[in-house]
């Protein structure tokens, strides 16, 4: 066996002679030494001549050279001499391999120790190599001189003789030539390799664009590539125009093809020449886009039209084939989303739902304003903002500049200048507001204030009252004379009163039961609210009406109190109010019977409304303004132009505080603005939509776009600003006449449903709270459609809250009766009447009424005190009330619905209809946590799946769709979860559960590494980071077949152990703050936990409360909870979470001191 010898210049390999034939078979090289001239320094002449050319004769057999005569040898010399053998190829070649063959028949030392030289004729030698004298071989040597360029090969040896049987010099021709003389040119071989040096063939075929035996023939048109085996692609101008080398279509591709060879069809979502066009919005995705011209085979996605589905629906239309008309969007009927018709800015007044096609269902003062105004007359609107002085004096029962000091014991009334009467418990025990003696009078005295002495005559049992107190001396004679006169007057009066009047209770004590409220003086053409006149309206009053008018025209504000307390008995102290309402809610008939006992129908003349020229100004038949307190407009040239269907209504201790009006119509819209201008109105409370239940409820009376101006008669109205909230809109309007301008604010409540009342009282209370933050001493215009139902409920709430705060008790039935005598049928339905009670409880009794941030720490401190009687914190008692109230609310409204509206009752029973369908039952983790149809998320259509997912839409403070609250997906609903993300264009997901729960089906919806497929969605984990209390994942997803990639960021809160009701507050606030900083748009946030209620609800509540705190500087925890529980009842399911809400907000305010000042 031979060994290899390595050198710097050559690689010498000693090999066995049996592989020499393989070397000769190489297609890559030629033996250029063959038959070339060779010389020897001397020639052996033994048996035959061992001449030099025998070593290049092509015969390398050295087994018996004496007989074969194929070897070359020098003449032996003694002493030792240098022997040389040399061959001249005749031209330069690239030398690859030199092989030297010795004789193999004897072990003569005929080659060992020779030197190999490579060079050119001109010398010097380029390379040389010496075979060591101790080499074990004497038969075969292979040299690889590393591509030397040479023409002469020489072997030299110092010794007695040199014997060489064959020398082969293999290499390649220079310049791409071949043949033994390198005089023929190679073709274009594969990868530009050298052709076979003997015959010119290409050992691996032809390079691109060539064919034939010698690769010298170019490809025919239409063919290309190696050996022209490839066919040209779909080149523009025909398949013959591609490059024959690589198939490149130099002019581009025909429609539907791409790539430089035009052999690749357009990617999904592309079409056209060179696939440079992007497919339109095809139905079922761009996979159904035809690649030549982009036609959508199955039509367009909703919102698009045209063969290519690249044309958006025309303004005002949407849906498949754009055949749907936009609803009543807030910013105009032509600005809805083209795909689903959603009104991204909300709805115009009167409309609701995503598409706005469903009609709506039937003060501070002092430094930093840290002080709260006192009990000013006309509310805090008259509180001077520097020092809190009440400009118009105090409400009854209060005194001092700030009206914060109660009347001294024994005094009462306005300015505390009235002295208490003879109350049973002493003259100092009367109510400081109105002097009433709640516990009765001392003997000999009567009346509400116990200031009326009386004498009971034996004959006929007639009582004679003497006002003022004790009588003596000469005064007694006068009094006695008066008694006789009074007796005579009463006897005669009894003889003259008709039976019908007696039946109606028409005596002096009950005069106000058939009256409006107080002080409705009317003077034509006057803009003074207290100086209006009812003259000239064509009314003919009876003597009784004249007496009534005289009472009503009294300027004494105390008249109101006498009225309120002489009406039907129903006074409830605040301490009993919650129990009272809850108890009566459980009684199917109590509130219904009380409501039916209220005055119903017209109570006073409405002659002006019935004049022929005014009838068309009334929206509804029989709902007219009473003559006695109707709003008078300045006549426009004739007396009949002073009418508008609007009525003054008295507030608590405030004369004509409200104007209750019907919604605007085409006939009265100009008059409506005349009224606002004439009475300097600064606040409008709108409680209806423009359309409800498919019916026109109110005419649009303001410009639709900010900065736009509309003219109504002589009043130019400009929309200055619009502020959108989840349940209401605040618009700042400017009205101008000639060169004078006035500003007013419209508070538009948009969450009153088509039927019934709002499901959550909290929504209305928060709205009412917001309205009252804007002080005014002008009449507040309140309107719905007719101006009686919702309008009455709102005004009654406002009055009763004031009454409760001042008196410590309320009388709902008396209040409603009172305002019904000022406008027909105020608080129109039983549902509204019950809702008024519930809303009143929330506004007066629960801490959830928005508390200013500076007062909240004191409020929570008080709520955490232990109730002495029950032994529980007051906060816990409040939560227990909340839980109990939920049950009663559902009970009473189910009862009302079943009595009045079969459809409504059925809708109550079927509110979870979709969730309970057989095909959807398996999609719910728990059968008691289901989405109501009115609140659930509807998914877009998808082959093989319906539109259901167990998820509900929750509002935040400013957005109707603030959160999507859902359960952690099941393995079978992960696809639906991604459909929801895609459909709603969600950017943020909040995950509040771990990834594994023993015994639960957990559908992990993201890949741990790389990518995964969920139905039609390809999802990959683009990035993952870990914070102290959370894991943040960036997930990329796309519809398979589409190149458009979208991203959603998931925040998994990791610091909430299992079986713990609430997390640690600082960690929770940290994740809230981080997510808040990420939220840059109006898209909803998906919030999920295991059951989609308990942990998710806590997050949504705290987030919303903080959002409101930042903007409004107040805290409304309970209202937020109630509002959200109306959508998903299981939110905040225990006291621990309820307490956590309060503690978390306190912690937040400590962290951000701005909100506690």
Automatic annotation (TrEMBL):
SUPFAM superfamilies linked: (Phosphotyrosine protein) phosphatases II (SSF52799), Galactose-binding domain-like (SSF49785)
Catalytic activity: O-phospho-L-tyrosyl-[protein] + H2O = L-tyrosyl-[protein] + phosphate
Domain Tyrosine-protein phosphatase as annotated: residue spans: 591-843, 875-1148
Entry EC no(s): 3.1.3.48
Record-linked InterPro entries: Galactose-bd-like_sf (IPR008979), Prot-tyrosine_phosphatase-like (IPR029021), Protein-Tyr_Phosphatase (IPR050348), PTP_cat (IPR000242), Tyr_Pase_AS (IPR016130), Tyr_Pase_cat (IPR003595), Tyr_Pase_dom (IPR000387)
Annotated CDD domains: PTPc (cd00047)
Alphabetical UniProt keywords: Hydrolase, Membrane, Protein phosphatase, Transmembrane, Transmembrane helix
Domain Tyrosine specific protein phosphatases: 765-834, 1066-1139
MF terms in GO: protein tyrosine phosphatase activity
Transmembrane feature ranges: 466-489
Family: Belongs to the protein-tyrosine phosphatase family.
Name under which the protein is recorded: protein-tyrosine-phosphatase
């Amino acid at each position: 066996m031979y060994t290899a010898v390595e050198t710097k210049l050559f690689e010498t390999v000693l090999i066995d002679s049996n592989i020499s034939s393989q070397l000769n078979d190489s297609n890559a090289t030629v033996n250029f030494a063959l038959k070339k001239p060779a010389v020897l320094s001397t020639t052996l002449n033994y048996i035959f001549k061992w001449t030099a050319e025998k070593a290049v004769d092509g015969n390398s057999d050295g087994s018996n050279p004496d007989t074969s005569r194929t070897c070359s040898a020098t003449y032996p010399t003694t002493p030792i001499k240098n022997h040389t053998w040399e061959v001249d190829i005749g031209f330069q070649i690239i030398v690859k391999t030199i092989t030297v063959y010795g004789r193999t028949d004897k072990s003569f030392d005929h080659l060992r120790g020779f030197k190999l030289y490579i060079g050119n004729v001109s010398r010097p030698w380029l390379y040389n190599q010496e075979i060591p004298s101790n080499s074990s071989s004497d038969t075969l040597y292979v040299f690889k001189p590393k591509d030397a360029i040479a023409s002469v090969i020489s072997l030299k040896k110092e010794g007695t003789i040199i014997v060489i049987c064959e020398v082969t010099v293999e290499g390649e021709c220079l310049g791409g030539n071949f043949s033994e003389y390198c005089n023929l040119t190679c073709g274009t071989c594969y990868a530009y390799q050298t052709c076979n040096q003997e015959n010119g063939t290409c050992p691996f075929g032809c390079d691109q664009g060539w064919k034939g035996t010698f690769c010298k023939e170019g490809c025919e048109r239409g063919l290309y590539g190696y050996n022209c085996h490839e066919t040209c692609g779909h080149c523009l101008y025909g398949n013959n125009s591609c490059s024959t080398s690589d198939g490149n279509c130099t002019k581009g591709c025909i429609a539907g093809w791409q790539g430089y060879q035009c052999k690749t069809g357009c990617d999904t979502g592309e079409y056209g020449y060179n696939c440079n066009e992007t497919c339109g919005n095809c139905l079922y995705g761009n996979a159904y886009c035809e690649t030549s011209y982009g036609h959508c085979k199955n039509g367009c996605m909703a919102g698009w039209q045209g063969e290519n589905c690249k044309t958006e629906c025309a303004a005002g239309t949407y849906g498949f084939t754009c055949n749907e008309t936009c609803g009543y969007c807030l910013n105009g009927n032509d600005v809805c989303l083209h795909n689903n018709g959603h009104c991204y800015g909300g709805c115009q007044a009167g409309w609701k739902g995503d598409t706005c096609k469903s009609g709506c269902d039937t003060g501070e003062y002092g430094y930093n304003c840290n002080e709260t105004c006192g009990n000013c007359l006309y509310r805090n609107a008259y509180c001077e903002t520097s020092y809190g002085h009440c400009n118009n004096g105090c409400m009854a029962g209060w005194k001092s500049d700030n009206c914060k000091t109660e009347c001294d014991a024994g005094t009462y009334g306005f300015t505390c200048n009235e002295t208490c009467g003879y109350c049973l418990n002493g003259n100092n025990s009367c109510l400081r507001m109105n002097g009433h003696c709640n516990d009765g009078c001392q003997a000999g005295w009567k009346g509400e204030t116990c200031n009326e002495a009386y004498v009971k005559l034996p004959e006929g049992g007639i009582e004679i009252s003497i006002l003022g107190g004790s009588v003596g001396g000469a005064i007694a004679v006068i009094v006695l004379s008066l008694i006789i006169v009074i007796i005579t007057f009463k006897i005669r009066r009894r003889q003259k009163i008709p039976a019908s009047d007696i039946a109606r209770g028409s005596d002096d004590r009950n005069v106000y039961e058939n009256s409006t409220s107080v002080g409705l003086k009317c003077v034509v053409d006057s803009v003074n609210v207290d100086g209006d006149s009812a003259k000239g309206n064509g009314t003919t009053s009876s003597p009784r009406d004249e007496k009534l008018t005289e009472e009503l025209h009294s300027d004494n504000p105390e008249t109101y109190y006498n009225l309120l307390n002489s009406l039907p008995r129903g006074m409830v102290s605040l301490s009993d109010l919650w129990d009272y309402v809850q108890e009566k809610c459980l009684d199917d008939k109590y509130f219904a019977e009380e409501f039916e006992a209220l005055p119903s129908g017209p109570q006073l003349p409405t002659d002006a409304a019935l004049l022929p020229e005014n009838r068309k100004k009334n929206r509804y038949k029989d709902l007219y303004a009473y003559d006695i307190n109707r709003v008078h407009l300045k006549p426009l040239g004739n007396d009949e132009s002073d009418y508008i269907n609007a009525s003054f209504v008295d507030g608590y201790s405030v004369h004509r505080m409200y104007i209750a009006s019907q919604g605007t119509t085409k006939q009265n819209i100009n008059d409506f603005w005349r009224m606002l201008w004439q009475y300097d109105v600064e606040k409008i409370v709108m409680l209806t939509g423009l359309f409800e239940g498919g019916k026109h409820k109110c005419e649009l009376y303001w410009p639709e776009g900010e900065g736009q101006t509309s003219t109504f008669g002589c009043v130019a109205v400009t929309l200055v600003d619009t502020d959108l909230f989840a349940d209401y809109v605040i618009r700042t309007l400017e009205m101008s006449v000639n060169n004078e301008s006035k500003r007013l604010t419209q508070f538009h409540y948009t969450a009153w449903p088509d039927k019934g009342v709002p499901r959550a009282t909290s929504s209305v209370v928060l709205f009412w709270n917001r309205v009252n933050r804007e002080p005014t001493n002008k009449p507040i215009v309140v309107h719905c459609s007719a101006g009686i139902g919702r309008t009455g409920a709102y005004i009654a709430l406002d009055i009763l809250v004031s009454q409760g705060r001042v008196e410590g008790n309320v009388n709902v039935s008396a209040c409603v009766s009172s305002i019904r005598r000022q406008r027909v049928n105020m608080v129109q339905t039983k549902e509204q009447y019950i809702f008024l009670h519930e809303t009143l409880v929330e506004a007066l009794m629960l801490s959830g009424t928005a508390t200013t941030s500076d007062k909240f720490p004191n409020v929570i401190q008080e709520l955490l005190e232990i109730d002495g009687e029950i032994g529980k914190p007051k906060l816990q008692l409040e939560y227990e009330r909340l839980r109990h109230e939920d049950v009663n609310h559902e009970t009473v409204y189910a009862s009302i619905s079943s009595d009045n509206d079969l459809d409504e009752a059925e809708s109550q029973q079927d509110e979870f209809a979709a969730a309970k369908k057989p095909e959807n039952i398996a999609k719910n983790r728990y059968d008691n946590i289901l989405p109501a149809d009115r609140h659930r998320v509807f998914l877009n259509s998808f082959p093989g799946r319906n539109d259901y997912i167990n998820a509900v839409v929750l509002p935040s403070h400013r957005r109707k769709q603030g959160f999507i609250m859902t359960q952690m997906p099941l393995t079978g609903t992960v696809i639906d979860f991604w459909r929801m993300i895609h459909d709603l264009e969600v950017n943020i997901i909040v995950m509040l559960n771990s990834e594994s729960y023993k015994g639960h089906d957990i559908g992990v919806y993201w890949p741990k590494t790389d990518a995964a497929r969920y139905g039609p969605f390809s999802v990959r984990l683009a990035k993952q980071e870990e914070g102290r209390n959370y894991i943040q994942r960036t997930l990329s997803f796309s519809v398979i077949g589409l190149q458009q990639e979208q991203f959603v960021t998931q925040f998994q809160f990791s610091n909430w152990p299992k079986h713990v009701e609430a997390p640690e507050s600082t960690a929770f606030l940290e994740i809230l703050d981080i997510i808040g900083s990420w939220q840059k748009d109006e898209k909803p946030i998906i919030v999920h936990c295991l059951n989609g209620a308990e942990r998710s609800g806590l997050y949504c509540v705290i987030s919303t409360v903080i959002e409101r705190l930042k903007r409004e500087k107040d805290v409304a925890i309970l209202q937020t909870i109630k509002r959200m529980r109306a959508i998903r009842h299981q939110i905040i399911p225990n006291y621990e979470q309820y307490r956590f809400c309060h503690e978390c907000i306190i912690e937040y305010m400590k962290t951000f001191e701005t909100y506690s000042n």
